[in-house]
Specification:
about 25% strand; alpha+beta; three-stranded antiparallel β-sheet; Ribosomal Protein L30, Chain: A; about 60 residues
């Protein structure tokens, strides 16, 4: 079974760079405190690393 991570948007994307806003949207996050669950893959980890200052993650 693949490992999962829960990603939560903790800060607003207002005033952020366009590529960071697009990354947050691509992760499936829309509003502050919204949560999504993804498989723990290198692609998802790279996206999370790009917006680490806006999100929190936890292992499931």
């Amino acid at each position: 079974m693949a490992k999962k991570i829960k990603i939560t948007l903790i800060k607003s994307t207002i005033g952020q760079q366009k590529d960071q806003i697009a990354t947050v949207a691509a992760l499936g996050l829309h509003k502050v405190r919204s949560e999504v669950t993804h498989n723990d893959t290198p692609q998802i980890r790279g996206m999370v690393d790009k917006v680490m200052h806006l999100v929190s993650i936890e292992q499931i």
